Automatic annotation (TrEMBL), chain A:
The keyword Oxidoreductase applies. It holds the Pfam family Pyr_redox_2. One of its GO terms (molecular function) is dioxygenase activity. Its cofactor is FAD. The keyword Flavoprotein applies. This is 3-phenylpropionate/trans-cinnamate dioxygenase ferredoxin reductase subunit. It comes from Zobellia uliginosa. The lineage of its organism: Bacteria, Pseudomonadati, Bacteroidota, Flavobacteriia, Flavobacteriales.
From TrEMBL, chain B:
It comes from the Bacteria. Residues 2-102 form the 2Fe-2S ferredoxin-type domain. Keywords: 2Fe-2S, Iron, Iron-sulfur, Metal-binding. This is 2Fe-2S ferredoxin. SUPFAM superfamilies: 2Fe-2S ferredoxin-like (SSF54292). It comes from Zobellia galactanivorans (strain DSM 12802 / CCUG 47099 / CIP 106680 / NCIMB 13871 / Dsij). GO terms for biological process: P450-containing electron transport chain. GO terms for molecular function: 2 iron, 2 sulfur cluster binding; electron transfer activity; metal ion binding. Belongs to the adrenodoxin/putidaredoxin family.
Length: 418, 102
């Protein structure tokens, strides 16, 4: 079976989340006259993912209030949606993809926006645990909400003290659950932030009566009369009606790998989001790409990267000269704390903590490598986030002593070294 | 029900009707050029910057602290700037005219 041949060029996008959807609309805006088909295994109309562990989890709103684009928008821009469809393989020679039901689709340009999936660690008992969920999809959240609704005094164990785990813990607490977070490392957020930030969030959760325990290596999950018992290597155990797993992601690279595309820590792409096959592009969480600000190849799990690579790939396919040069940014909301992050802190050798006089819970952590500002984590402090963005982009040298002095007024002119 | 008019950077005028949610969400849903709303409406990306027509400021109110902070170093920002993810649609803002920032 094959599509009826026609003269219209065809662009097929595998993956309809932030990257795939933004790409499809951007490609149309770039003037692409051919067909655009967006395929995803998820059967729900594409939605915003970041709120899933934050505001969406605690609200009564359905997913229809959280859509990336309305159904009408796809029709208006002639973007065909194939939802609930699994792609089996890519045949690069014949430029076709093969769907799970055996049908094939031809492409002139193929875009892989396959994203990532939660890691389900090989912990004995994890497969059979009751009410155990990751948190990445609308279906995961529906399962979690259902479990919360069915249990009045719900006891939750969250495995993993990264952003997803901590945001989910804060949201579940708000819904009335008692929550314990188990982190394997000696501090939470160890992979992504300085000890000062870990300490702040540890205390924030403590103050909100969420128990965050570190150096807890989960070794098994055992059935219990009401649910599960989560057992750690130090012999401690925790009862859980529900278990949330937030220990990171696996890149969905298998399709690309089977097709023989170059894979490193993700699908390798050039500055135009093009893979090792000139007709195939890759965008978003699944890519391993070069970042000129840090002069190295990186993989990012973020909306910013998904959206920016989507725009680059659309421009490149439209024949425009373009090159990815975005500075990464992220955010996290926990309780009433808004964390905004810009840049990548890997390789830092010094942090400067900037506190604001008379403003508790408003501070920022500035990461340096020598005199080079690498990144800023801003807590309830959008100013610090905005200044940090400007300084990193401009490569400005910062007066660290003024930066760290809460009596020095917080303004760009004061912070740049003379 | 509120009628909201957007003037794009190409001077195109788009009038939309909404009943609830944010002005950003309405604009994104209808593909108003220049309003991206990448962060989904949590005041984290500043991709929904508009200038409110001066006489409509009484209806929309002025920017909150976080909006002002997010726009502090934006050369196009002025006293009429808002991040429209922070403007809730209600009858109270019926008729406002918003210029999409460059």
């Amino acid at each position: 079976m094959s599509d009826i041949p026609n003269n219209e060029p065809s662009c097929v996008v595998i993956g309809a989340s932030h990257a795939g959807v933004n790409f499809a609309f951007a490609l149309r805006r770039e003037g692409w006259n051919g067909s655009i088909c967006l395929i995803d295994a998820d059967s729900v109309l594409p939605y915003h993912r970041p709120p899933l562990s934050k505001a969406y989890l605690t609200s009564d709103e359905g997913i229809e209030k959280n859509l990336l684009k309305s159904k009408e928008s796809y029709i208006k821009d002639r973007i065909e949606l194939k939802l609930g469809v699994w792609v089996e393989a890519i045949d690069r020679e014949s430029k076709t993809i093969i769907l799970a039901d055996g049908t094939t689709m031809a492409y002139d340009k193929l875009v892989l926006a396959t994203g990532a999936r939660p890691i389900m660690p090989p912990i004995p008992g994890l497969d059979t645990a009751k009410n155990l969920f990751p948190l990445r999809s609308a279906a995961d959240v529906a399962n979690i909400k259902k479990t919360v609704a069915e249990n009045e005094s719900l006891q939750v164990v969250v495995i993993g003290g990264g952003y997803i785990g901590l945001e989910t813990a804060a949201s579940l607490k708000k819904l009335g659950a008692s929550v314990t977070v188990l982190e394997r490392e000696s501090r939470i957020l160890a992979r992504v932030t300085a000890p000062e930030m870990s300490a702040f969030f540890q205390k924030l959760h403590h103050d909100n009566h969420v128990s965050v325990l570190t150096e807890k290596n989960v070794t098994s999950i055992e059935p219990a009369s009401t649910g599960n018992t989560v057992v750690c290597s130090d012999g401690s155990s925790y009862p859980a009606d529900m278990v949330i797993v937030g220990v990171g992601i696996h890149v969905n690279k298998e399709l690309a790998e089977k097709a023989g595309l170059t894979i490193e820590n993700g699908i390798r792409v050039n500055e135009m989001a093009q893979t090792s096959d000139a007709s195939i592009y890759a965008i978003g969480d699944c890519t391993f790409h070069y970042n000129p600000h840090y002069d190295r190849y990186i993989r990012l799990e973020s909306v910013q990267n998904a959206v920016d690579q989507a725009k680059i790939a659309a421009a490149a396919i439209a024949g425009k000269k373009c090159s990815y040069d975005s500075l990464p940014w992220f955010w996290s909301d926990q309780y009433d704390v808004k964390l905004q992050m810009v840049g990548l802190s890997d390789g830092y050798d010094e942090v400067v903590v900037r506190e604001e006089a008379d403003r508790p819970n408003c501070f920022s952590v500035w990461y340096f490598q020598g005199d080079t500002l690498l990144s800023v984590d801003a807590v309830n402090n959008a100013k610090a986030y905005v200044y940090g963005t400007k300084f990193i982009k401009g490569g400005e040298k910062i007066d660290k002593s003024k930066l760290g002095d809460p009596r020095a007024e917080f303004k760009p002119a004061n912070l740049v070294a003379q | 029900m509120a009628k909201i008019t957007f003037i794009t950077s190409d001077d195109e005028t788009i009038t939309l009707e909404g009943t609830s949610g944010s002005v950003m969400a309405l604009a994104v849903e209808n593909g108003v050029p220049g309003i991206d709303g990448d962060c989904g409406g949590v005041c984290s990306c500043a991709t929904c910057h508009v200038h409110v027509t001066p006489e409509d400021m009484v209806k929309t109110g002025s920017a909150s602290e976080i909006e002002t902070d997010m726009l502090e170093l934006d050369d196009n920002a002025d006293e009429y700037s808002r991040l429209c993810c922070q403007i809730e649609i209600s009858d109270a803002i019926d008729g406002v005219v918003l210029k999409v920032a460059k």
